[in-house]
Structures are given as structure tokens and as C-alpha cells.
Design goal:
By secondary structure, the protein is α/β, with parallel strands linked by helices. It has 2 domains: 148 residues, Nitrogenase molybdenum iron protein domain (Rossmann fold, 3-Layer(aba) Sandwich), CATH 3.40.50; 118 residues, Nitrogenase molybdenum iron protein domain (Rossmann fold, 3-Layer(aba) Sandwich), CATH 3.40.50.1980. It contains 10 helices and 10 strands. It binds zinc ion. Zinc ion (ZN) binds next to loops.
Length: 289
């Protein structure tokens, strides 16, 4: 008993200076969270993102390397609200002792069908809650760098306030009756609630798979009868079908909205702020007159 206590004391004494010298190992579950952690942690953290740019966090299959990454992590930042369904198994198999930080803690979730809608980051006000949760977790895991995290957070929160104002200003310029799009994505519920753009799902068309010619006919009828000014249909790869919608309805085809993933450095949305700006540009481009 006494020997074990001694061992613990020796381990505790030898472990702490080593950890202080190393950068804090932080793992983020997907690219958007990875960017938020980078903004707060900067060079003071050693950040790994599990689901990288242009990848789908909903249907991810963890690799053996991910198990090692998670096992080595001190802090694991996740979205929660059911987004990372693959995570519990990874955590269990890796034997990770990381402190798990749920970035959405404190956010009142919207519903998506009967489940919680996980896409809370699409409201900039929510992103500020994510950032505060990440800051608190980094500060408590690495008190030596607490003031760095606090300063970086304050600066970034100012940028998010400016971004939120930018979004509101852009949408205010769209005539109210034109603030409606058809979208096959179900990822913009929080954006819609925060900023007053209606995202209408195509009636009777599965959003899971590529629409058939018959689905396209239904979408055309819906766009016409509801006089919807713009259509964002990103899962249609057949240009002829997209062209038919535009030709037969006069609706603008809005291009790409980024929802669940950032792009690589060279893409249009390498950071959270760039992603929101891109989406606003696409929406105002399609809806503004
Ligand atoms: Zn999603």
C-alpha cells in the first residue's frame, strides 16, 4: 500500500515537468472544430483533426492511426448532438483517457426529424459558444498557456461578432419575399433560424441519393408554384438535369453551400469564417436583385 503510494508520487513528480515542456495534445473530431481549436490554441497546442477537409463526418470510418491519435490525446473536442456516431467505439477501442469536450454544451438544440440537429455551428452565435467551451477546456488542461488562450479567444470572438454582423447586413439587402431557397441539404436549420433564410426541402425527393428525372420534374413544379428564386442542389452531378431546372423555372442555380466540412487551403472555405463568407456570397448572389 505504502509502496504504491510512493510510486504514484514519483510518477506525478516526474510526469508534470515533461508535460509542461510538451505542447498540449488536442484532437478535434472534424475540420470545422479543428479550425476553431487552431484559432484558440495556435502554436500552443499540437492539434490533430480526425475527419479532415472535404470529408463527411456523419459516415466516417476511423483508422488504426486514429485509435493511436485518440489514445495520445489529452483533450478531445467533439461536436456532440449525435454528429460523431462512430466515436464511442473508437474511444473504447483506443483506451483513451482524454478529457472529452462537447463544443455544443450550453446550446439549445433544434430538432431534425425526431433527433437533435447537430449542425449548430451554422449560426455564428453558436460558434461563439463552441469557442468559449474550447477556451475553457484548453485553459484548464494547460494552465501555463491560459493567458495565451484567453487573448486569442477574445480576438477571435471579436472576429465572429464582425462576421455575424456581416451576415445580417448581407441578408438585410435581400428582399424579404426572396429569402427562400430549395436545398437538398438538411444542414442549415440553425442558419435559417438565426438569419431568416428559409431552406425548403424538395417535396417527395430523397435527399440521400441523386434525384431521378422524375424527382427533377417534382422539384420544377415546386419551384414554380412557390416562386422560389434559387435552388441549391449539390447532390446532382448531371449538368443536364440542373440545366433543365434553370431553363424551366427561371430560378437561379446557387452553386455550392459548404455545410459540414471545410475545404483544403486552396479551396473556397479553408476556415470557418471563410466558409460562412462563401455561403453568404452564394446566397446573396442567387437571391439578391
Ligand atoms: Zn450534416
Amino acid at each position: 500500500m505504502r509502496l504504491r503510494l510512493w510510486l504514484c508520487l514519483v510518477l506525478a513528480v516526474t510526469a508534470s515537468p515533461l508535460q509542461a515542456a510538451e505542447r498540449l495534445n488536442v484532437v478535434a473530431s472534424f475540420s470545422i472544430l479543428g479550425d476553431l481549436v487552431r484559432q484558440i490554441g495556435g502554436d500552443s497546442v499540437n492539434l490533430t483533426t480526425l475527419v479532415g477537409a472535404n470529408s463527411d463526418v456523419h459516415v466516417y470510418t476511423p483508422t488504426p492511426a486514429d485509435a493511436k491519435t485518440v489514445a495520445d490525446a489529452r483533450v478531445l473536442v467533439i461536436n456532440g448532438l449525435g454528429l460523431e456516431g462512430w466515436l464511442p467505439r473508437l474511444l473504447q477501442s483506443s483506451g483513451s483517457k482524454a478529457q472529452t469536450v462537447v463544443a455544443t454544451a450550453g446550446i439549445v438544440p433544434l430538432k431534425l426529424g425526431s433527433d437533435a440537429d447537430p449542425h449548430a455551428w451554422q449560426s455564428v452565435a453558436n460558434a461563439k459558444i463552441y469557442v468559449a467551451n474550447i477556451r475553457d477546456a484548453l485553459m484548464s488542461a494547460d494552465p501555463a498557456d491560459a493567458e495565451i488562450f484567453r487573448a486569442r479567444t477574445n480576438r477571435y470572438l471579436d472576429e465572429l461578432d464582425a462576421l455575424d454582423a456581416e451576415v445580417r447586413e448581407a441578408i438585410a439587402k435581400i428582399p424579404p419575399e426572396r429569402r427562400r431557397v430549395i436545398s437538398t441539404h438538411d444542414a442549415f436549420g440553425y442558419f435559417a433560424a438565426a438569419y431568416g433564410i428559409a431552406f425548403i426541402a424538395p417535396l417527395g425527393v430523397s435527399t440521400e441519393s441523386e434525384p431521378s428525372a422524375r424527382d427533377i420534374a417534382k422539384i420544377i413544379a415546386q419551384v414554380r408554384s412557390a416562386k422560389i428564386p434559387a435552388v441549391f442542389l449539390e447532390n446532382i452531378s448531371d449538368d443536364r438535369l440542373v440545366g433543365r431546372i434553370a431553363a424551366e423555372t427561371g430560378a437561379t442555380l446557387g452553386g455550392t453551400l459548404f455545410s459540414d466540412s471545410l475545404t483544403s487551403e486552396k479551396g473556397d472555405a479553408p476556415t470557418y469564417i471563410a466558409m460562412v463568407r462563401h455561403n453568404i456570397k452564394a446566397l446573396t448572389g442567387a437571391l439578391g436583385r
